[in-house]
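Saturday, quiet lab. Running sequence design on the structure tokens for the scaffold JK sent over.
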């Protein structure tokens, strides 16, 4: 997790390989840990769903049109 040291807010997740996924909204870590950890989980799911959707859109754009001869298969 990427935590701002001044505000104690979570702004992103990072993997052990250095990959970074930024949250759409900043997560405040003040208060009960179970509450903000659930917010981290919801934020992670939202970001990953968005990334998967964008990947499918990119794949659709990259697929060449099917030639007329092969459309009946």
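Result came back. Writing it out in full:
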């Amino acid at each position: 997790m990427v935590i701002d040291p001044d505000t104690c807010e979570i702004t992103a997740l990072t993997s052990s390989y250095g990959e970074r996924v930024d949250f759409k909204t900043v997560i405040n870590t003040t208060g009960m840990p179970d509450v903000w950890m659930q917010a981290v989980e919801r934020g992670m799911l939202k970001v990953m769903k968005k990334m998967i959707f964008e990947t499918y859109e990119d794949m659709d754009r990259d697929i060449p049109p099917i030639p007329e001869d092969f459309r009946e298969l």
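Notes for JK: The chain has a mean pLDDT of 86. The longest strand covers residues 20-28. Ask whether to fix the surface positions before the next round.
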